[in-house]
Amino acid sequence: MLSGTTSTPTNVNVSPLVLVVEDEPEITKVLEAYLQHDGMRTHCAADGKEALRLFSQVRPDIVLLDIHLPGMDGVDVLKNIRSESDTPVIMVTAMADDVDKLVSLRLGADDYVVKPFSPAEVVARLRAVLRRVGTPISAARAAPINVGQLVIDVEGQCAFTRNDQGGIRPLPLTLTEFRLLARLATQPRRCFSRSDLIENCLPESDALDRVIDSHLSKLRRKLQDAGHGQLIETVRSMGYRLWHEA
Predict the structure, then answer these.
(1) SS3 of 194, please?
(2) Taking the CB of residue 178, how many other CB atoms lie within 10 A of it?
(3) Which domains does the chain have, with CATH numbers?
(4) How far is residue 79's CA from residue 84's CA, in Å, rounded to a whole number?
(5) pLDDT tens digits for 116-139?
(6) pLDDT in tens, 30-75
(7) Sheet hosting strand 239-242, strand order edge to edge
(8) Chain center to CA of 112
(9) Three-state secondary structure call for residue 207
(10) Mean of the pLDDT values across residues 218-231?
(11) d(CA 236, CA 98)
(12) Running DSSP on this structure, what letter comes out for residue 44?
């Protein structure tokens, strides 16, 4: 979550700011991770009063608003937002809340999503509404590299583990470790020589083979700690490869 509290005008160089209003911490955490991974900025609120305070303070580009909140519910929050702003709002509702959905749309909600939802679908809905209202959004990010449950985001220079429930856990990699992992992942099962890895991952250094060995040893340990087993193999007298059964 961003720590800034002042409003920033939206332009082509600033990613959209999403206000996520959700009282279930695990859902908030997953949504925030997906939105930030997609290049959006986020602020989060767990109840209606906090949502309205943040809305006035940060002036988000769009609001993702759960209907069922402690204290002031989402419909009342929407009424308050609509009394002063036409900022797009996407409501989040439970499967049985057809009446709530209709009421929210009549009050001026731009769209709704139904729990349980796919976080990727929520991101797509947000982008669709932002395009519809003319809010500049960044170009689509380059597709990440997926190796089983391991996701390597070359553009964002980060890697994370995805679990079966759709949650993600970042891997604490150094820049060199990330470069090595990304290089190996471009062509799984190909053996990369140490000289190739030095040239492409540490071009600014005079690293020796044993330095690459040290970096890869640390990378392997972090992958193992994250549950990815022996993902990187040593090819004797040749180099290294990333091995994954398709």
Answers:
(1) helix
(2) 20
(3) 17-133 (3.40.50.2300), 145-242 (1.10.10.10)
(4) 9
(5) 888 888 988 998 999 888 876 655
(6) 898 888 888 888 999 999 999 999 999 989 999 999 998 998 999 9
(7) 192-193, 239-242, 232-235
(8) 20
(9) coil
(10) 89
(11) 63
(12) E
In 78-164 the beta strands, taken as DSSP E runs, fall at: 89-94, 111-115, 145-147, 150-153, 158-162
How far apart CA 107 and CA 133 sit, in angstroms, is 17
**Token output for 81:** 């937002």
SS3 state of residue 31: helix
Closest CA to 189 of 144, 246, 118: 246
Query: Tokens for 84?
Result: 């002063």
For residue 75, give the 3-state DSSP assignment: helix
The CA distance from 17 to 172, in Å, is 26
pLDDT exceeds 60 at position 245:
no
Q: What is the CA radius of gyration of the chain?
A: 22
Which residue, among 31, 53, 57, has the nearest Cα to 42 in the 3D structure? 31
